Amino acid sequence: MTAITEIPVARPGASEETTLAPFAGQVLLIVNTASKCGFTPQYAELEALYRRHHARGFSVLAFPCNQFGAQEPGDAEEIANFCSLTYDVSFPIFAKVDVNGADEAPLFAHLKREAPGLLGSKAIKWNFTKFLVDRQGRVVRRYAPTTAPSAIEADIEALL
User: What are φ and ψ of residue 125, in 5° steps?
Assistant: First the structure.
């Protein structure tokens, strides 16, 4: 099985690939995000979690996605500016990805395989689906878009 830190991901603001190796040994909350979604205010709670727990080895990793209602139309610079100016986001925001379908990012194929949704469904249903990953790179749990990031805090603390 491929370690989550070896799965290719697109660099923030670029088309070339990298891996999540810099995050090895950390607890991760991986989220598909969008700037024009009803759940977009979750960026504030994601940032609060990141700031409270980052020093203990926790990171939020955002992957913008335009597959749901075209709610992430911007380019990498526009997305980064929006997140910084509107929510003071300091956690990493990667390049825009597809999370479902023929062009889905390998990371999301892995996450969905390891943590299926309700009734075993694999497809991500909307923006702000969240995946919690432990320090060993195992996908621990999948959370629905409606799950507030603050409701995940106890699960994060248990892994730290």
Answer: -90, -25
